[in-house]
Amino acid sequence: VEECALHHPDCGRGYARPHYSPTRLIQICAGGNHWRLRDNSQLMEEARHLRYIALSYTWGQHQQLLLRKGDLADLKKGMNVSDSLPKTFRDLIHVARRLSVDLIWIDALCIIQDSHEDWAAESMRMRAVYANAYCTIAASWGTDPTKGLSVDRDYEHIRPASVQTSSQVTGRSDSAQVRIIEHNGWKKILERSALHKRGWALQERLLSPRILYFTKEQILFECDIHRVCELFPTNPPPGYAPNSSDRRDDRPYTWYKAFVSKEEQTGQFGENSKINSFFRRWLVIVEDYTKCHLTKRSDKLIALNGLVDLFEHLSGEKHLTGLWRSHIWESLLWRVSQNHLGKTEMFPSFP
After folding, report:
1. Whole-number Å distance between alpha carbons of 291 and 313
2. For this UniProt entry, which residues form the secretion signal (predicted)?
3. If residue 56 lies in a helix (H) or strand (E), which one and from where to where?
4. Closest residue by Cα to residue 315 from 347, 287, 280
5. Which residue, 127, 250, 145, 142, is CA-closest to 187?
6. How many other CB atoms sit within 10 Å of the CB of residue 161?
């Protein structure tokens, strides 16, 4: 994480904003045993640049602790970590301290949940919250905040199987050790996780310049230009993790390069080529998004709004309630992959 922050100037390039701070942040007090809610106006008076960590997680059926209007004053005074927070939030504080960060953002505690006005305003700031986070922590395997980030696991499971081979083709007996790994293992680990099926989590992942996934199998790290994991802490072998040449590699930096990079080919059909590339990437995102679940169907467009905002910013295209003006006819051509399509009385038209 630190190496990316220090040596990857392109991560977040084109969509992160310097000196941004969310409306509210949770401050971890000295020693890590207490926390309190802080307004960004107070924090900005103390430091020009606020480094914070954002959490991406699954709410589950029963969220234990929420910020409500009546709780605001008490949470600003401070609370004990062990007495007030579910395990995932406590684990997040531990990880943040290991990364030398004392500010964190959790939607349940940084957005006033019983205020429609606050929720509406903050939901429109999701792009900025995740795009400007020092790192996003993804609680990938947990189905609710009580599960925690880590899980007891057998480390033998993350080691690739290996076999000893020999050959006499060269006239002498040669031997080599061959490692057997799962093709597209990175993608399959994420697809098996509970968080990957949550609609809101898609833009949280794509908007974050760097993200740590805590999965059942291993910890994965991803930034705009690099991917590593416990199994391959330097460079994953070809076929294990996506790379920038993969058409489904949806990291925002690939969009940035497609639209504003000086190296982008221009000419007779240069601009049209850029727009078509943009639209193809958008279709991949919509395809992935429609496989996810939303607790409230009314969130369908809101939960994608941060990505829409980013695409508009990078491409200059006009967004029309889930569709794009330059490709509006193509956007209306979709089909369902399941037998049942639920009734909808709202836009966008994709299910």
Report:
1. 26
2. none
3. strand 53-56
4. 280
5. 250
6. 9
And the tokens for 239? 């076929």
How far apart CA 71 and CA 49 sit, in angstroms, is 28
Phi then psi for 92, rounded to 5 degrees?
A: -60, -40
pLDDT band at 83 (very low <50, low <70, confident <90, very high): confident
Instruction: Produce one character per residue of 127-144: b if its CB has 16 or more CB atoms within 10 Å, e if not.
Output: bbbbbbbbbbbbbbbbbb
Q: Where are the alpha helices (DSSP H) in the chain?
A: 2-7, 40-46, 72-77, 81-84, 87-98, 107-110, 116-123, 126-131, 185-191, 199-207, 252-260, 270-289, 305-315, 328-331
Which residue reads 């310097």 in tokens? Answer: 18
Residue 330: strand, helix, or coil = helix
pTM of the model: 0.85
pLDDT tier at 318 (50, 70, 90 boundaries)? Answer: confident
Phi and psi (nearest 5°) for 316?
75, 5
